[in-house]
Amino acid sequence: MRVAESTLTCIMGREAAYSGLELTWDMMLASKQNLQPQAFGYDLPLNIPARPVPGDYKFV
Questions:
Q1: CA of 50: how far to CAs of 14, 43, 55, 56, in Å?
Q2: What's the predicted TM-score (pTM) here?
Q3: Total structural domains in the chain?
Q4: Does residue 12 lie within any of the structural domains?
């Protein structure tokens, strides 16, 4: 539980910095953002998203 909460705290801090919003636990848990690749494999290309720009970044 401590590791999961610590990880979510880090992700919440990153999202708050990128979006400029004050985020809550409930907002993070209800988020629709998916950071995982759609498929896994050594021979698949890795799609790297564009860098987030603070102020332009939208929290999902």
A1: 15, 22, 14, 12
A2: 0.72
A3: 1
A4: yes
